[in-house]
Amino acid sequence: MYDQKQDKLIIGGHEFTSRFILGSGKYDPELIKAAVDHAGAQMITLALRRVNSFSGNILEHIPEDVTLLPNTSGARNAEEAVKIARLAREAGCGKFIKIEVIHDSKYLLPDNYETAKACEMLAKDGFIPMPYMYPDLNAARDMANAGAAAIMPLAAPIGSNQGLSTRQFIRILIEEIDLPIIVDAGIGKPSQACEAMEMGASAIMANTAIATAGNIIDMAEAFRHAIIAGRMAYLSRTGRVLDRASASSPLTGFLQE
Amino acid sequence: MDKIDHMKYLPDMEILPDSDIQDRVIDAMHHFDYQEYSASDVMRALRKESLSLHDFGALLSPAAEPFLELIAERATKETQKHFGNSVLLFTPLYISNYCENHCIYCGFNCMNKIRRAKLDEDGIRREMEAIAKTGMEEVLILTGESRNMSNVEYIGNACRIAHEYFKNVGIEVYPMNTDEYAYIHECGADFVTVFQETYDSDRYEQLHLAGHKRIFPYRLNAQERAIRGGMRGVAFAALLGLSDFRKDAFAVGTHAYLLQRKYPHAEISFSCPRLRPIINNDKINPKDVHEKQLLQVMCAYRIFMPFAGLTISTRERAGFRDHVIGMCATKISAGVSTGIGSHVEESGEVGDSQFEISDVRSLDEVINAIKGRGLQPVLNDYVFI
Questions:
Q1: Interface pTM (ipTM) of the complex?
Q2: Is residue B10 in some structural domain?
């Protein structure tokens, strides 16, 4: 019988029993509460550029037992990502850092090359880097070798709610990279989160899908169930799915001893 | 008085010989015939996920007017998708109203007999302190366009002071050369707004009679120089009503679109000012842009470039501003005064205003209005690095 408490997600030596991480896109206290109470989030991303506000009210809304995952949004290259990460550490946001390096204001696609560079610099500086990336195996290997604690491939352009557009490439990362693969960006529905978990993703990060739902609490709850369902399916090894029909009288059926 | 050639750069004005942005914008605007669009062009544009320049033109056309409700719905969806419930707040701060230009529609123009003033370092600090005390974290520094009375060093110094009090500093001043933008950036500002006023160069020539501002191409290429100077973001606008507003809006969108393609990292935003009544503007004949047309333009910007910021001007009434946030606008000013030295009560206003504002609400009042619409006021979404 599946026991969520025993099925631990380990990132950088830290244990989590929840496999839902709240992203930082659209933020308000109501969303944070729904994510923690109803989606079970134990880790919440937050953009330093928002924490950095004099009003500082975002941090007040995050419960103490929730791990903060500050991100480097606003960084356009590795050096800027490192600067933002250090500012986050000074602001008391801990060692985890989600690396986001973006210099495309239209699609907000991450720059894998600069991200890998930032990953190396931040790992050497004592951070626990979690790079947000376009799902490319070579880049993921570079990030893993550079000291990443998890790899966070995008499912679709951020905020797009388009689902697992990059599923085949995420599948390759799951097979080849010995780190937690956390699917980030683009997950628009619980069914898509479920599918990613069924494929073997270690966790799901989402924000817009819940933030823009008509009923935030119910949607947060739906994500929790979907992620658990997908995880259970993965662990119980889903039945085989073939591309074509399997002949009941196979061509090789005539062979004898 | 002989007028200078408005298309010829003056000495010391930097030319970008490798840039074809201006030619492409003007060419696209000339070919934009908004009467050619039909209702089916509008519907086709609305069905598309990502709009071409042609589709953008359809949304700006008269054929789109009967579909304004549908357009507003689509704009609202895009705003939700890209910005959620958040609405950014800022305050403009006018530090000098000296101007060397003769622009016949503008309250600051050098021929208008208004009280001129320029804040010194202490005055700037006092004004900024007063604004920061309200809780505001973003400031936009504005001057009249006088390189003599408010030179680059003066503006840079204001940016340094602003950087002490605010998280986010932008400028809306005269166009500069790339190296000057780089200097201003070093001083702590990261966003540059330049209104082209109108992209119709013939009309531009009739409206801008003298001064540096008369040079049309130098102004048009300001955003590109700002980006090259290291600025994070640039804002575009035409003062709707100076010329054919549909053509001007099309040119604004085209300009932003082409620069974003050339400099994909640049953060793009739009402003949507309309002409407001000011002293001596009876000399021009404003082309009417009613609220309906203004909203059409704003929604067209939003749907065409859904990731771009859009600022709603204080020139508009509170009721209009409150309704367009969350629909298409993402940024709203509060606690605004367009006079010089008017944020510090005891000193009073020492220089006259550029234009009349319609929404005089304080920061707290605007915050409450935003919350009242189920949206989330955000004072800062930026980190200076």
A1: 0.80
A2: no
